[in-house]
Amino acid sequence: MQKRQFKFVSLLAEHTLLRPHPATWFSCSIRVLCCSRYSHYSILMIDELDGSFHMIESTWPKVKVKTYQEWYAHSDRLVLPQFLDEAIWPFDLEAVLAKEGEKYPVRDIVEQPLDIARTCWFAIGHRWNGFSGIGRGGTFCTELAATGMGRADSHRIRPNDLYSPLGIVGVINGEEFRTYKGQQAAMPEFLLQAV
User: Fold this and answer.
1) CA 55, CA 72: separation in Å to the nearest integer?
2) What does each C-alpha distance from 158 to 57, 72, 182 come to in angstroms?
3) What is the pTM of this model?
């Protein structure tokens, strides 16, 4: 069997639409705590051998590569594709793929909100730097995106650090689209152009 050869297409900023399921409330709490429109990041890739689309993302219990269809049918959400200017943010997909299988840092879910309150809401103290001082024993979704972008502080990146309605230098926001739980993936226009 040939090894997969992925090429980076875009970052996908997401937020799950509120439903009576606990996971949707978790998504909502991340948005509120981070003062961000989006709560989660995935990375969209294309397999250069067969032209199929795949995602890599960090969710419970670990960082995983999945097909675009698996990702699409997982939940109802709004998604914003973000394209990177390679001259400013050359994306290191190999560094991201090297994190496949790393666990989701559940223990840090308690620590990071405290840091957000300290630094964002009260503007006091230094930014949290993980339990070991340089990061944690696991990988958050935004950390995957920031690792690919070459950010040295990738373990401290939050959704509001990667998205701004006013724009971030070198990050081009695409047109928002919606996914539907349990349904066949519809191909947004930007995906058809990527082939």
Assistant:
1) 10
2) 14, 22, 28
3) 0.85
